[in-house]
User: Fold these one by one.
Assistant:
Number 1:
Amino acid sequence: QVQLVESGGGLVQPGGSLRLSCAASRIIFSNYAMGWYRQAPGKQRELVAAITSGGTTNYADSVKGRFTISRDNAKNTVYLQMNSLKPEDTAVYYCHAEREGRLWLNYWGQGTQVTVSS
């Protein structure tokens, strides 16, 4: 059974930093594009950042210049470094894996809470 396990969430003050990690198991990690989504109360889930198997990244406009997504294929792990956090970044953050190529498969993690508050 495929698992995506997120970690690193928590409570942080505005202006602070957190690094989220997502460890994947039972997939050929290098075949997957990885992404981070978030969902705040009463809002739709939205894409925060994504990285392809080749390392191409894209970001939501709201996080450009503050968040960085990266991956370590040797560790089957994707990271989201979040700096200069704002209260509006508060949400549950979900890891997502999407297989590239002709066979489309995708998986979600269980989510990790990020709260930005003083």
Note: The mean pLDDT is 96.
Number 2:
Amino acid sequence: VQLQASGGGLVQAGGSLRLSCAASGSIGNIFAMGWYRQGPGNQRELVAVIADGGTTRYADSVKGRFTVSRDNGWNAVYLQMNGLKAEDTAVYCCNAKIIMRGDQWGQGTQVTVSS
């Protein structure tokens, strides 16, 4: 499985961005996809994940502001980010969880929120 993320950029506080992650290869073996982020001086943290059946999970810090969604068949996963704050500034990485293989990571995309 290969993951290609896009959609990062510079936005003012309060603004919105939509991240996309396109999956290719053996996507039939994916059972969950999501987004993690790593801000300056911080450890990588879960932002949002969506699993088979549409179950979602969010970091407390983004609940009510971010929405994770996906295409049918795991072709792509999206992260709609509204009400962005300076503390959301980070490199956002796409992740896929694959049966019998574990985690697959895409390259990161930088999100910078100016206050």
Note: The mean pLDDT is 96.
